[in-house]
Each structure stands twice: as C-alpha cells, then as structure tokens.
C-alpha cells in the first residue's frame, strides 16, 4: 500500500493556467498534432517534412541554379573613369623617411594616348623608377603611364599640392600650400595652358602656336614655351615669382626636338637673381654631347663630331671617332 501511494504521488498531473481548470480551452480542443495531418503524411504515416514538392522543368531548375550562383558571386568592382577615360590609381614616395617624406597620389590612363606635343609640359609616371616625370618636348614613349585624373601631394600628413591632369597635361585648378596649410598659389589650366597666359600664334586662325607666356595674378608664374614657324619647340623653362627658375632648355630647330643648350637658373624665384645662367649641357644637331658639367665632358672648340648611323641622342663618341 505504501508503494502504491508513493507511485501515485510521483505521477505527472496536467497543469493548466486557465482560471477554470475544469473547462478545457477551446483552442486546445481544435489544435492537433501537425505530424498526423493528412496533408503532411506519406502513405498514411507521419512525415517530418512539411515542405510540399513542386515539380519544375529543367529550364526552371537551371534558371534557379543560375540565380543562386549570381547571388553568391562577389559584386564586380566599379570601373574608374575620369573625363570618359579608364584610369588606374598609383602612388609614389620621395624625400627619404619620416616627416620629410612626400607621398604623391595620382591616376594614369589605362590605355596609352599621346599628349598634346605643343603643351608647355606633359607629365607621366615611370613604374620602374617609381617617379613622376615632366617632358617638355617630343612625343612620349608608348610605355609611359600618362597622368590623367586627380592628383594630391602629401608631406607629414599635410596636403602640399592638389590638382587634376587630363591626358598628361595640367587641367582645371591647381593649388600649392606650405607646411602650415597656408595657400601659396592657385592656378587655373585649360588642357595644359594657364588660363591667364599670354598666348600668341603665327597665323590668324590660331593653329600655329608661337609663344606661351604664363601669368598668375599679373606676375610671371608657370611653364614657358616658344616654338618655331615649323611647329618645333625652341625654348622651354619655368617662371616663379616673376623670375626664371630651374633648367631652361634651347632646342635645335629640327623635327626631332633635339636639345642644343641647357642653362641653370636659381631653384627658387625668391633666391637672388643671376646675371648670366650657368651652362649645364650642350649638344650637336645629332644629339651628341659636346659639354656636360655633371659628367665632366668639355669638347667645345674641337671639330664637331659626326654621329654614326643609329646613334642615340646624347651619345658620346670615342676619342678616335671624333672629328671624322
């Protein structure tokens, strides 16, 4: 008897939270086990799957798989385009390390295009030397990375220069800052030519360029260029603060744009002016070096050497071959 009493005490009793336990809830009376419904059974036996089978054609099946694959694919990268041309991003470092290091962020054409040869200056990036170069005369090599797109120069995390390139030449607004963030200069360009430049032509139709004299706020500032009547570059150089600065180059009046003389002016327009610039290099019509200060070459006064067939510009002949 004791064992029976204990068994009865341990038996489970249904517990209802209804205030009237003697009346079963109506919802419980209607609800039934979903596994026993005819719609969810197979051959009269309960099924654990409540998904109904849908018969699809092979075409629909293939379309569903393609849709699933498309959803799993990574979204394609947006194409970088500037002024209708495909571009790629690049950067270059210079000036050592630490605070003195300068970082240039720029874009260049994905597919090469030759810049305007009459523009005062053309700019390109050399991936082997990791450096941006400025070309004054002649056509660029097809392997050059022609700059095209926004440009920014940073030093010690501060913006030093900003602007835009278009097909290798400066375009739109360019600004320069000092290390304190003070604006030093602001110049507007139109496809390589300063907007305020004094530009003259040989003809009335403005098709034969003669001279480009750059002005900013009424003062000589920027790239200078002068051409012959045949369209060849005669002089190229740069002004700053109304004075000649850097290297000025004179060219032979031939189609190949070979250099004749290179003169050195002060590096800054705020340095003292010089009466006569320093001669750096001199070349023959064939592009052979007659004088080169850096390489300690001086053959002025000697018979002009003749370049052999296929000689490159700037080639120096052996002494035994000179004077022939």
From TrEMBL:
Residues 51-78, 293-324 are annotated as: Disordered. It comes from the Bacteria. This is Toxin-antitoxin system YwqK family antitoxin. Residues 58-73, 293-303 have a biased composition (Basic and acidic residues). Transmembrane segments: none annotated.
């Amino acid at each position: 008897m004791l064992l029976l009493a204990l068994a009865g005490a341990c038996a489970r009793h249904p517990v209802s939270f209804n205030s009237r336990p003697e009346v079963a809830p109506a919802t419980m009376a209607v609800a039934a086990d979903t596994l026993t419904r005819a719609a969810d059974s197979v051959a009269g036996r309960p099924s654990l799957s409540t998904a109904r089978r849908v018969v699809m054609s092979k075409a629909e099946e293939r379309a569903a798989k393609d849709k699933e694959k498309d959803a799993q694919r990574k979204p394609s990268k947006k194409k970088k385009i500037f002024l209708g041309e495909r571009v790629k991003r690049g950067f270059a470092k210079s000036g050592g390390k630490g605070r003195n290091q300068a970082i240039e962020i720029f874009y260049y054409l994905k597919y090469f295009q030759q810049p305007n040869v009459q523009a005062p200056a053309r700019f390109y990036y050399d991936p082997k030397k990791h450096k941006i170069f400025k070309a004054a005369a002649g056509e660029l090599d097809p392997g050059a990375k022609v700059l095209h797109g926004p440009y920014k120069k940073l030093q010690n995390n501060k913006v030093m220069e900003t602007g835009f390139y278009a097909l290798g030449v400066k375009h739109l607004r360019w600004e320069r800052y000092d290390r304190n963030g003070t604006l030093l200069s602001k110049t507007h360009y139109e496809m390589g030519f300063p907007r305020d430049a004094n530009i003259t032509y040989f003809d009335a139709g403005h098709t034969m360029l003669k001279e480009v004299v750059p002005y900013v706020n009424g003062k000589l500032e920027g790239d200078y260029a002068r051409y012959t009547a045949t369209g060849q570059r005669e002089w190229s150089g740069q002004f700053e603060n109304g004075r000649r600065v850097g290297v000025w180059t004179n060219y032979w009046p031939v189609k190949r744009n070979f250099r004749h003389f290179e003169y050195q002016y002060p590096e800054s327009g705020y340095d003292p002016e010089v009466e006569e610039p320093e001669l750096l290099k001199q070349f023959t019509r064939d592009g052979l070096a007659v004088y080169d200060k850096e390489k300690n070459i001086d053959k002025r006064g000697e018979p002009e050497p003749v370049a052999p067939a296929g000689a490159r510009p700037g080639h120096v002949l052996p002494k035994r071959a000179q004077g022939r």
